Amino acid sequence: MDFIPVLDKGFVRLVEVMGGDHSIVQAARVSYGPGTKTVREDRALIDYLMRHRHTSPFEMVEFKFHVKAPLFVVRQWFRHRTASVNEISGRYSVLKEEFYEPELWRQQAGKNKQGSEGAFPDEEADGLLRQVEEVAYAAYQALLQKGVAREMARMVLPLNLYTEFYWKQDLHNLFHFLTLRLAPEAQWEIRQYARAIAEIVKAHVPMAWESYEEHVLGGQSLSRTELMALRGLLTPEVYEKALRELGLPESRVREALEKLFGGPPRP
Amino acid sequence: MDFIPVLDKGFVRLVEVMGGDHSIVQAARVSYGPGTKTVREDRALIDYLMRHRHTSPFEMVEFKFHVKAPLFVVRQWFRHRTASVNEISGRYSVLKEEFYEPELWRQQAGKNKQGSEGAFPDEEADGLLRQVEEVAYAAYQALLQKGVAREMARMVLPLNLYTEFYWKQDLHNLFHFLTLRLAPEAQWEIRQYARAIAEIVKAHVPMAWESYEEHVLGGQSLSRTELMALRGLLTPEVYEKALRELGLPESRVREALEKLFGGPPRP
Amino acid sequence: MDFIPVLDKGFVRLVEVMGGDHSIVQAARVSYGPGTKTVREDRALIDYLMRHRHTSPFEMVEFKFHVKAPLFVVRQWFRHRTASVNEISGRYSVLKEEFYEPELWRQQAGKNKQGSEGAFPDEEADGLLRQVEEVAYAAYQALLQKGVAREMARMVLPLNLYTEFYWKQDLHNLFHFLTLRLAPEAQWEIRQYARAIAEIVKAHVPMAWESYEEHVLGGQSLSRTELMALRGLLTPEVYEKALRELGLPESRVREALEKLFGGPPRP
Amino acid sequence: MDFIPVLDKGFVRLVEVMGGDHSIVQAARVSYGPGTKTVREDRALIDYLMRHRHTSPFEMVEFKFHVKAPLFVVRQWFRHRTASVNEISGRYSVLKEEFYEPELWRQQAGKNKQGSEGAFPDEEADGLLRQVEEVAYAAYQALLQKGVAREMARMVLPLNLYTEFYWKQDLHNLFHFLTLRLAPEAQWEIRQYARAIAEIVKAHVPMAWESYEEHVLGGQSLSRTELMALRGLLTPEVYEKALRELGLPESRVREALEKLFGGPPRP
């Protein structure tokens, strides 16, 4: 399951991994030393690290992917700077005639300026896209045949052209990438890549993934005012009871109560 | 107010700032273009960026500090890698006889393995500390007088020795530094430095600070299970009413409801 | 001179600078302390830092630019990760019909697979380019009119489309950017942007620029074997004489001799 | 050979590696595509990448070390920011009574303000060091026994105390670390660690190491003026002959001549 097709012609392929859940534990135990050697099991330690945002042990796991994606997706992807990357160079090689052609077209969202909503088939739109591809790729080839340098000729190619790259990133930064790119605000196309990566990551570091899902991906940041509103509507007792009923262990119940009802005041 | 004494002999001094609240707005408007030129005021735009974790515009403001702090504080400080730093070198110069001497001693916390609690004066402890300082600095001077290289002689000096450094960091990463170092889990001494920096930052980017305080510093990350517990205890109506009573604007009320009661499902 | 037109429709504009030559000196003096306070003048200190690759004081100066450039240039530019950036988003705004149209076309280089050579006008090539632009932009508008989301519609646009962004980077990393992008191997178009940035940087940190030109930009890295060949062809005496005749100060002559004829052996 | 003792009580131990020489080639081939598939062998490709400073493929190899070193060495080490690190925390655990005790003492260098020269045994100096260790560690224990928090008590400990940490870094950044820390200007103690790391790296990526040694470690950066002096003393013919006699292949001879006698002019 380390090769996952994405969109119409793209993919995510796992090339290599360094470490796993055990590497997170191993690095954390160096930091916390004999002091934690006792009862705490690996799963509990990883969960502790995740919910207290002790991020450095998660940097000790490294993933390397081979990805094929359209240029407009890659432009979003490479905004993440904490990674290593090698991409096909259009200066060295003639770029292949491979374009992303969506099955459905999404509508411009009304309220949300950056988003889209709904999705519909539209043959006319398909035709417009295909026409651009054909005119552009024909121009690309004509320029090359004239002897124009590849580095110049490529500028006629549209942003739905496929490219390929290697992507190497540690688990902490990969989680950050996923948080942003699995979010509903992310563009649908990059979300499909994020889902493929998520599937691979989950399979290789199941404990870290579980904690990530519980505390980050499935969690929410509440503002001071939102916490204040909740505080006015609930008592600690009723919240504590509800948390226990959901099976939270003692230490997590205590932490949850502290978040809502206090604990050491912030400066 | 750009020079703030910290601990017994340390300080934080602002050397230079590049930009301010207006630079955040300026950079954001490049990204979002004419699409946002309309009604949104600066304060609202900054708040939107902060609560949706659009962090790049905050990188457009840069602070440079001159800091004097004990070595054990500096060791924690320099774990932050997204900054530029120049520190006094004990290879080039003879280090001065200046040591941090706390007014009060804090007790080892019971449950929390990394923490401390309570604080008490203790002349015996003061004496132990001073004895180490004297023996160590005398040895340092004796080694130098023997002609031992400065780079070697310095290894007898204890971790409460004061050092000085320049620290340059952008506002996004500075907020991250503050979030970690103002937290109650941070060691008391570095928290005093964080508070001094916070005071300076607040004075120079008041709008960004206000949003940071509301959404990050004064906020909390709730896990999936905690959200589930809350969801079982409240109705959207009662929560909405409480949020409105606290004066939240319409768009923020909508967002708050979405966080707790849904909105587009995560993949 | 802080706005420089580049290519047919692009530009580089300086938005803000933090610090200057004096900031490099100021930060270096913290590191080296009273030990260097004596005779060394600013220019000599900056030159010393540059040629010994003491890079951290150069990080203490920060530049912020506003740039307008074609997408294929921006794709190369953003491979530099040690900077902060905000770019126009095609998800928020309708992108303008502005394309890079070269005056001359460059020929594919023979030996050098990534390069180009020669340059010629070619009306047919101009026509091919313009045809792609027209078909692509018409398709973009038609898709938008159909209600297709901006984030999708933009994928028909070609890589010679102009975009704009803010770019903030410290001087050390900016020098690194310039070294790579002023090099003859860099694509001609990005070299024009690098030259514009170089002009601005030179005007704001003239001393640092002078040292950068002498030791990095105008210098060369010689391999062990190349050094060995030179060593076999020259005597220290003859080289020393030549260096002196070019006006090098004593300390630099000594360093130059050490590079070629030895000095402390590497491990 | 993946565990190497360093100094009197320290060590460098390889924990994990991701990839090897083949990973550099693999990533480079993605970038340069079919265009380079032909004749170039792996060794030649790696050497090409190294001497043209195409650094990104070297980022595709990752090393993780476990290191035990004195605090003053670690303070220098952690100035490198492009790595991941987990260190023993003196807040969680009681630090062990282990101190670096040098066999020989080095003399303060005369001209070079940061350096040392000569080395001599000195029992008096040994005694001074040992006295500081004893007084400091006794004070540490006494403070702990009084109930003082570990995070405070540790501040009496001197900089020759040993600590341990995990260090994860990619090969490109590791080479940069080695270039700085194998240099004769680096402090002798950290140089011993760099040598141990160099030995391990060399064994795992022999081809990359060979190129690194030829082009970086054993090479030198010559300034514009130094190149000018050489140009005045040699003819291309005589230099070419000497290069050939040392067995340089054709393409490298051409590049070497270009560095000294021209080639495309810099802007």
Please provide a written account of the structure.
The structure is a homotetramer. With about 270 residues, chain A is α+β, with helices and mostly antiparallel strands. Chain A folds into two domains: about 5-215, 2-Layer Sandwich (Gyrase A, domain 2), CATH 3.30.1360.170; about 225-260, no CATH class. Helix content of chain A is about 50%, strand content about 20%. Chain A has eleven helices and eight strands. Chain A has helices at about 20-30, 40-50, 70-75, 125-145, 150-155, 170-180, 190-205, 205-215, 225-235, 235-245, 250-260; strands at about 5, 10-20, 60-70, 85, 105-110, 115-120, 160-170, 220. Chain A has a five-stranded antiparallel sheet with strand order 1-2-3-7-4. In chain A, helix 2 packs parallel to helix 8 (about 205-215), helix 7 (about 190-205) packs across helix 8 and helix 10 packs antiparallel against helix 11. The radius of gyration of chain A is 24 Å and the shape is elongated. The mean pLDDT of chain A is about 95. At the C-D interface, helix 7, helix 8, strand 8, helix 9 and helix 10 of C face helix 7, helix 8, strand 8, helix 9 and helix 10 of D. Strand 8 of chain A pairs antiparallel with strand 8 (about 220) of chain B, so a sheet runs across the interface.
